[in-house]
Write a structure and sequence with these properties.
Bound molecules: inosinic acid
Strand order of the largest sheet: 4-3-2-5-6-7
Structural class: alpha/beta
């Protein structure tokens, strides 16, 4: 199989610098509290692992797997729960870590799902946000970068299961 290198949109250094800032911000806001971090698989796995290293608080890490995209570059409009978290979030501070908010459907669905479980607080950290595609109002408490409406890959994000391992965020062009 041929290897393509998508054009860089956000470099490794820029991501690392922003994560440092987000970690410090989250640490300050939750000072003296415990945090349940929910990593939304698969796309957020690299962002989550880098971000939690910069949060100086007692953390319990959970994973949840949701899918809305199938193998293409547009949302299917349905969100499927593929794997749930294993611990109760009742009465706890929850931080959801997501890779990208596009239409907002995935996060809206996840927030509805979590809120019935009565957490103390729920906050959202997302590495990326595409404001032009938003259909469902979602509040991102800790945002990495706002980007234009292009399909991006790398740093955990995929196209048809590929490119997750790239250390930067790249734009997937027709030629890729
Ligand atoms: P939403 O439900 O439309 O907000 O879509 C969120 C999910 O779609 C993300 O968690 C990603 O898995 C996927 N997604 C949206 N835009 C992109 C992109 O540009 N590249 C890769 N995945 C994306």
């Amino acid at each position: 199989m041929e290897l393509f290198s998508p054009e860089a949109l956000i470099t490794e250094e820029e991501i690392s610098h922003r994560i440092q800032e987000l970690g410090a911000h989250i640490t300050k806001e939750f000072e003296g509290e415990d945090l349940v971090v929910i990593c939304v698989l698969k796309g957020a796995f690299i962002f989550c692992s880098d971000l939690i290293k910069k949060i100086n608080l007692p953390i319990k890490l959970e994973f949840i797997s949701l899918s809305s995209y199938g193998d293409g570059t547009t949302s299917s409009g349905n969100v499927r729960l593929d794997m749930d978290i294993s611990e109760s979030v009742e009465g706890k501070n929850v931080l959801i870590i997501e890779d990208i908010v596009d239409t907002g459907l995935t996060i809206k669905t996840l927030l509805e799902m979590l809120n019935v479980r009565k957490p103390k607080t729920v906050r959202l950290a997302s590495l990326l946000f595409k404001p032009n595609k938003l259909k469902h109002k979602v509040k991102i408490d800790y945002l990495g970068f706002e980007i234009e409406d292009k399909f991006v890959v790398g740093y955990g994000l995929d196209y048809a299961g590929r490119y997750r391992e790239l250390p930067y965020i790249g734009i997937l062009n027709a030629g890729n």
